[in-house]
Amino acid sequence: MFMLLLILFTAVPALEFYLLFEIGSAIGAPETFAIIIVTGIAGAYLAKSQGLAILQKIQQELAQGQMPGRPILHGFLVFGGGLLLLTPGFLTDILGLCLVTPGTRHIIAGLLMEYFKKGIANGNIVFVNSATPNRPQDDYPEQELPSDVLEAEYSKKEID
Predict the structure, then answer these.
(1) Average confidence (pLDDT) per 10 residues, the chain, 160 residues
(2) How far is CA 86 from CA 75, 95, 97, 121, in A?
(3) Comparing C-alpha atoms, which of 13, 40, 12 is closest to residue 96?
(4) Confidence at residue 69, expressed as pLDDT on a 0 to 100 scale
(5) Cα separations in angstroms, 36 against 25, 32, 69, 94, 152
(6) What is the spatial distance between Cα 25 and Cα 19, in angstroms, rounded to a whole number?
(7) Residue pair 96/27 in contact by the 8 Å Cβ criterion
(8) For residue 58, what are the contacts with CB-CB under 8 A and spacing of at least 6?
(9) How far is 109 from 59, CA to CA, in rounded Å?
(10) 9-43 burial, b if ≥16 CB within 10 A, otherwise e?
C-alpha cells in the first residue's frame, strides 16, 4: 500500500509536469493553459449534470424500495472524475473524462463491481456494521479484525 501511495503522489505528478512541459513546448504555453482551463470548466459542467442525473436515479430507486448500489458507485466515480478534471494535467484529465462520461464510466463501474464481488467472496473485503440500534450486544459475537482496520466509537451530543 505504501508503494502504491508513493507512486501516486510522486510519479504521477512528475509525469504530469513532464507532459505539461512537452505539450506546452509543442503547441505553446497559452494554448496549453487554455486546454487546462477548458477541461476544468467542462469537467465541472459534466460532473454537475451527471451527478444530478445519478441523484435522480438514486431517488427513484429508493422510492421504489430498492437499494441503489450501482447508482451510488456511479456517483462516487463521477465525483472522483470531477476532482480529477479540476486537477491540472493531461493524464488526470483523460482519467477524469473517462469517469464522468457515461459510456466509459459504465465499463469502469462493471470492472469495480466484479472486483468487489471477488473480494467479498474470498474474504478480502469485509463490511462491519456496529451501528444497528435496538439489538442486544449478544447477537454480535466478538470478531477478530485485521491489523490494518481502525475501530472507533462515537456518541451523539445534544447542543442546547
Answers:
(1) 86 90 92 88 86 90 87 92 87 91 92 90 76 52 70 74
(2) 17, 12, 11, 36
(3) 40
(4) 85
(5) 15, 6, 33, 12, 41
(6) 10
(7) no
(8) 68, 71, 72, 75
(9) 19
(10) eeeeeeebeeebeeebeeeeeeebeebbeebbeeb
Grid cell of 119 as nine digits: 473480494
Three cell numbers, residue 136: 442486544
What the block records as the C-alpha cell of 104 is: 466509459
C-alpha cell at 154: 462515537
Spatial contact of 96 and 83, defined as CB atoms under 8 Å apart: yes
Q: How many residues does the chain have?
A: 160
- Can you spell out the DSSP letters for 141-152? ---PPPTT----
